[in-house]
Amino acid sequence: MKRVFVDLERCLGCHSCMIACAVEHSLSKELFKAIQETPLPKPRIEVRTTEKGDSFPLQCRHCEEPYCIDACIAGAIRKDPETGLVLSDEKKCVGCWMCVMVCPFGVIRPSLVPDKREKVAIRCDLCQDRETPACVEACPTGALFFGEAEEFKKAAGKEGGKKNALLNSG
Amino acid sequence: MHYLIVGNCAAGVNAIEGIRKLDKDGEITVISNEDSLAYCRCLLTEYVMRARRGEDILYREEDFYKKNRVNLILGKEVVGVDVADKKVILQDESFLPYDKLLIATGATPKSLRIKGEEKYGVFGFRRLSDAEEIIKIAERTGKAVVFGGGLIGLKAAYGMKKRGIDVYVMVKSPRVLSQVVDAEAAQIIGRWLQENGISIRTGIGPQEILGDDEVEEVILDNGEKVRTNLVIVGKGVMCNTSLVKGSPIKTHWGILTDDFLQTNIEGIFAAGDVAETTDIATGNRTVNALWTAACEQGRIAGMNMVEMTKRYPGSIGANSADFFGLPFISVGFVRVREEGYEQLIRSNPKEFKYKKVVLKGNRLVGFTAIKDIENAGVYTALIRKKVNISPVKDILLEDYLDYPKVRDLLEEKEGLRESISMQGDTIRIA
């Protein structure tokens, strides 16, 4: 199952991934049109920082046993049995923020439906319409990697980035 | 193997899925005293305000039961459990045998216990049928009186106000949400509701309901009279335990459950609003009658009905709502009335902003946020995992407190959910 992985040592905190994500999830899918949309499109990946000040890109981990699914009062969140992706049906979401309340990673965010005023909880959907997620394509340093866990371990290991090879590795 | 589930809401449906995870062949029967397929009770607000139609609030697709090979019995009431003979007794005196039983009968709104309450026009806010009747009367008269300022009462009031109905909320306590958040947070939310057109009066309760067959007027406990044809009761809920009365199944507030959500009788489990569990934040035995808790409990109980392997970590009081665009979240123990707790608060009532954490020693036990709610789940994880938060105490109230800041603290702890990690990854979290 393909996922987005992060080599933390390569992330410079340039926020290119965030811009690409917000544009990808806008109505127009073009930067200069997207910034004029109301509501302003929000990214589903965010570059945060650790307590030491290091950059730390973060998005939905598509948990094995997600708290958000239990929490959803609208039955809008499902785990795809084939891909393992945890996806929200934004049409079913009523914006109660139960999922925001329980996500231990803080990667589900309150937002508004593009072009409408309706509340909706958003999260990384791994860009279902694209071959490679927009954030990965936009990353100038190769800190973001899209593929199988094994592939990533190999790729990161080769270049000595082992320490932070797997985002969140235990 | 015949699994019998009494109740067809959050806990019941998740139990079906829990069972089917581990047992594809066993026979599953679900029996419910409601006539409809499982629906999202919490969405009655959206139903009333016309944001969702009846078919939109179904919890699972219509073919869910067929797909999971469930024998679904609707509109039948279970009135007793014969533990010795392993069967449940129905109201019509027929019975259903079981090998494993899950009691997920939920709860019923508490009544007002006043004269005239039986008249047509007095409703709880729990069943689709309540909402349908409420709409009928409200459309005709344009006015509703809500007794109770808890989440249910306020969600009912909010739904009706959004539909254009005049809503009067009467609360016996000095403020709304007195069981959910602290006084300051309650005042902020109460003021916001009033500014958005919901009338709220505190320190007032009902004394008597007048009218022939239908509600026409309510006498308040200060002697005042209010004309209305619609009264909504949001005074909390009582566990539906009547079916185990006279059986050896033990109850206290609710049906007592162990770490595997099994009752004191082997092979009989309880989950959802009827189940009494241990609260993670306080350590007390309690009924956390919440959708979120019911889903988790149902799933775990279902799995344990097949194979006793899944430990339930305990429930946590956790609420989230959004009224007129003002979101708030409150988790764990937040209404501090005794010594031994430390509270850190950042409040800006003018902008309807509030953030508070409650600490016991070096542990986070409670959290409230109004307006800025991003990263709320990070706090919930810190509470659940009973993390020593001393290293981040100084930044606990900051908006930049997020997962990367507490990652090391969270990961020192063994996961409460062992394999929450993403596929192929090795994280252990929450």
Automatic annotation (TrEMBL), chain A:
<keyword id="KW-0813">Transport</keyword>
<protein>
    <submittedName>
        <fullName>4Fe-4S ferredoxin</fullName>
    </submittedName>
</protein>
<dbReference type="GO" id="GO:0051539">
    <property type="term" value="F:4 iron, 4 sulfur cluster binding"/>
</dbReference>
<dbReference type="InterPro" id="IPR017900">
    <property type="entry name" value="4Fe4S_Fe_S_CS"/>
</dbReference>
<dbReference type="InterPro" id="IPR050954">
    <property type="entry name" value="ET_IronSulfur_Cluster-Binding"/>
</dbReference>
<dbReference type="GO" id="GO:0046872">
    <property type="term" value="F:metal ion binding"/>
</dbReference>
<keyword id="KW-0004">4Fe-4S</keyword>
<keyword id="KW-0411">Iron-sulfur</keyword>
<feature type="domain" description="4Fe-4S ferredoxin-type">
    <location>
        <begin position="84"/>
        <end position="113"/>
    </location>
</feature>
<keyword id="KW-0408">Iron</keyword>
<dbReference type="InterPro" id="IPR017896">
    <property type="entry name" value="4Fe4S_Fe-S-bd"/>
</dbReference>
<feature type="domain" description="4Fe-4S ferredoxin-type">
    <location>
        <begin position="2"/>
        <end position="32"/>
    </location>
</feature>
<keyword id="KW-0677">Repeat</keyword>
<keyword id="KW-0479">Metal-binding</keyword>
<keyword id="KW-0249">Electron transport</keyword>
<dbReference type="Pfam" id="PF12800">
    <property type="entry name" value="Fer4_4"/>
</dbReference>
<dbReference type="Pfam" id="PF13247">
    <property type="entry name" value="Fer4_11"/>
</dbReference>
Automatic annotation (TrEMBL), chain B:
<dbReference type="InterPro" id="IPR023753">
    <property type="entry name" value="FAD/NAD-binding_dom"/>
</dbReference>
<dbReference type="GO" id="GO:0016491">
    <property type="term" value="F:oxidoreductase activity"/>
</dbReference>
<dbReference type="Pfam" id="PF18267">
    <property type="entry name" value="Rubredoxin_C"/>
</dbReference>
<dbReference type="InterPro" id="IPR036188">
    <property type="entry name" value="FAD/NAD-bd_sf"/>
</dbReference>
<dbReference type="InterPro" id="IPR050260">
    <property type="entry name" value="FAD-bd_OxRdtase"/>
</dbReference>
<feature type="domain" description="NADH-rubredoxin oxidoreductase C-terminal">
    <location>
        <begin position="323"/>
        <end position="386"/>
    </location>
</feature>
<keyword id="KW-0274">FAD</keyword>
<protein>
    <submittedName>
        <fullName>NAD(P)/FAD-dependent oxidoreductase</fullName>
    </submittedName>
</protein>
<keyword id="KW-0285">Flavoprotein</keyword>
<dbReference type="InterPro" id="IPR041575">
    <property type="entry name" value="Rubredoxin_C"/>
</dbReference>
<dbReference type="InterPro" id="IPR016156">
    <property type="entry name" value="FAD/NAD-linked_Rdtase_dimer_sf"/>
</dbReference>
<dbReference type="Pfam" id="PF07992">
    <property type="entry name" value="Pyr_redox_2"/>
</dbReference>
<feature type="domain" description="FAD/NAD(P)-binding">
    <location>
        <begin position="2"/>
        <end position="298"/>
    </location>
</feature>
